[in-house]
Amino acid sequence: MSLFISPFAQLDLLRQPEQRHDPLQAFDAADEYLLAHLHEQGLGAGRRVLLLNDGFGALACALAGHAEVTSSGDSFLGALALHKNLARNGLAPAAVRFVSASETPQGPFDVVLIRVPKTLALLEEQLTRLHGQLAPGAQVVAAAMVKHLPRAAGDLLEQYVGPVQASLAVKKARLLLCSPEARPAPRSPYPSRYRLDDPRLELLNHANLFCREGLDIGTRAFLPHLPRGLGRARVADLGCGNGVLGIVSALANPEAEYTLVDESFMAVQSAAANWRAALGERPVEVRAADGLAGQPPASLDLVLCNPPFHQQQVVGDFLAWRMFQQAHAALAHGGELWIVGNRHLGYHAKLKRLFREVSQVGATPKFVILRARKG
Predict the structure, then answer these.
(1) How many degrees, rounded to 5, is the angle at CA 342 between CA 246 and CA 122?
(2) How high is the pLDDT of residue 1?
(3) Where mainly found (predicted)?
(4) Is 18 exposed, middle or buried (0-12, 13-18, 19+ CB in 10 A)?
(5) pLDDT surpassing 60 at residue 40
């Protein structure tokens, strides 16, 4: 049980994905500070509230029933947590409207509460979309734990919204209080693009993508080792990002069937655009999801994966291990999971706990490419 107490509600909240004996909470002191400030200022009846990057729905669940609440973020797992936490606390699903970060929430909004994201490009994109969506006299307040609050976050708020005043720190959290002013309509710097030489591709990347300005070194190490001669194999690019692994594999395997999956809505948006640019109308399934959790058992022959090692600000291999488990469940007998990972993470030993046969198919001084076969 994770009890969240605010002036608006007392809630039992959970994170996603769920872990047994999870030591982490679905909220932090920055959430508490935001809601205490809002209560002190007075919310008023019938106010329209926009929440940006509300991790696991703590803010939305607290304000449900007190205002007309719209929540927007880039995490499928965050959206899943929001819906589960609404139900867990006896709140109606319709009490909060969720809008993915790949879309623009429609105002006007009287209050905007922002949890500063790890990727400041996402914050910049969200602030450009606030233009024309604020009601007269709107409150705009951003929050973060002090250790996760870069000075550039305040600079972006001043650039796109108006003057900013930083609060005192409370329980190691800080607020940025923004006074909206008229600004010219901004032009978003996103999406960005970069090119690959082999194969020749231009890849589009929306604001919240990892390594948005160029191919990450893990994927660069993986690409030369992607399997060929797959025939009509059923292939998934798990944690697809901008889709580069799946797209390069598809170009080399014209008869194979592909599914591209990521928990980031902006990643899926990018991957779908990149697939169309590289492969035209060739069939593909591109979806935002909790990895392969919804994939039918034994429905895949090959899974390609460059697994993440963090969720928001939390670093660890829990998500990677979960992806390995999902891949094992989704693969047919004899199917294979191919991954790239940092040498020091010890994925070889972890994969051996699940798969009958694990071998190394390539390596660089920093990375290993592993193939795990399901028996």
Answers:
(1) 60
(2) 53
(3) cytoplasm
(4) exposed
(5) yes
| CA-closest candidate to residue 208, choices 70, 73, 50 | 73
For residue 214, the surrounding DSSP H or E stretch is: none
- Mean of pLDDT over the chain: 94
Residue pair 341/347 in contact (Cβ under 8 Å)? The answer is yes
Ordered domains of the chain (ranges, CATH): 3-178 (3.40.50.150), 192-373 (3.40.50.150)
Could you identify the residue written with the tokens 């998500």? 319
Taking alpha carbons only, the member of 283, 294, 231, 288 closest to residue 258 is 283
- 226-256 pLDDT, tens digit per residue, is 999 999 999 999 999 999 999 999 999 999 9
Picking from 218, 231, 363, 237, the residue whose alpha carbon sits closest to that of residue 304 is 237
Residue 314 has pLDDT above 60, yes or no: no
Q: Which helix (H) or strand (E) segment is 356 a member of?
A: none
Cβ neighbours of residue 278 closer than 8 Å, sequence gap 6 or more = 201, 247, 250, 251
Percent above pLDDT 90 for the chain: 89
| Tally of CA atoms within 13 A in the half-sphere of 57 that contains its CB | 31
**Residue 339 and residue 369 in contact, taking contact as beta carbons nearer than 8 Å:** yes
